[in-house]
Amino acid sequence: MKKVSFLLIALVVAAVGFFSGCSPAKEPKKMETIRIAEVTRSIFYAPQYVAIEKGFFKEEGITIDLKTTWGGDKTMTNLLSNSADVALVGSETSIYVEAQGAKDRVINFAQLTQTDGTFLVARKKPDYFSWEQLKGSTFLGQRKGGMPQMAGEFTLKKHGIDPHKDVKLIQNIDFANISSAYASGTGDYVQLFEPQASLFEQEGIGHIVASFGKESGKLPYTTFMAKESYMKKHNETLERFTKAIYKGQLFVDTHSAEEIAKIIAPYFDDTSEELMATVVERYKSQNSFATNPLLDEEEWNNLQTIMKNAGELPQKVDYSTLVNKDLATKAMK
User: Where in the sequence is the signal peptide annotated (predicted)?
Assistant: First the structure.
């Protein structure tokens, strides 16, 4: 009887082993989609495009749906109306939302750039440049209340220029139309992002004479942010998202401008790889690309100093209120 029992057990064990061996392999993890609204399309955001093109998001089980929303107000509208899950925009926008008493706070969780990304372009190439030359000129600036404009005003004041008295300041042109307005003859000077600044220099329309990024110091110029409710529901997904961004940042930091230009070329159809490499190198040389996603408190405070200096800080907001550093800290381990 015992022999029969042992035989039955042996048969059962063998059968279990057989069917286990024949069971289908585990299905691959389902990809999750994150919709990003980026404030503009710029080589300034190279680490993001590298993370997409090199498959760093895919490695983390994430598919990216990227759209350009052209302006901080439009980008934030997309986020608040749930047309986007994550916004890539200046941190000042989260402070504006907080000041309006939003019940669902907008939280900064991963920093992409750590300086201003604009350059001062002059109509005529000077033999030498000094900020004094702007006095009495027409200056085509960025949108009032936006980080580019505030960094611009901060820089002018730093050099003893009152932007509302010493120059004729134009701020009423839509963000997407500033470059075309300058190309058509408006303004002696203009504040531009890349690659437009270098394109103008290449075409003889203007000449880069100074960097607002070098002048205004480190700050959370462009960060990834999401609504607090979304972060609570998708915390683990956003941690993987932040890991992918960190991989992109490390790649940009450790590879040549030429290599990076080749990778991000699909995002800039009208720009040569040679010009893109020039722009990437310019940003790398002034440490504009953040080398990790952690937004630190010193940068946050510098941001509010610049906003206050421009008369655009509606209220001071503590670092811990609108910055989640946990995702970046975990992603960097």
Answer: 1-25
